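Q: What structure does this chain adopt?
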Amino acid sequence: MANPDIVGRRIRQLRKARGLTQLQLADLAGLPQSQISQIESGVRRGSAIQLEAARSIAFALNVSLDALAGVPTDDTDAEMESAGEVLVPA
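A:
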């Protein structure tokens, strides 16, 4: 199994924090469940996700693309802390 990158880890954390299964997230995002699984497991890297798919996942999780990618911003600090991330200033 591949190592998930930050995007895959964030999607899994956010999905679980919202009590969603991969299938439920896939349905909300309009994507195949296999794509969610591949992203979360690292088979498909965050950099290889098409923008439209990333937007759909972010919308389904009710977060910004920055939050999905783990980019710290003022509006995502609370979200990041609740997901257990350690933020490192750029």
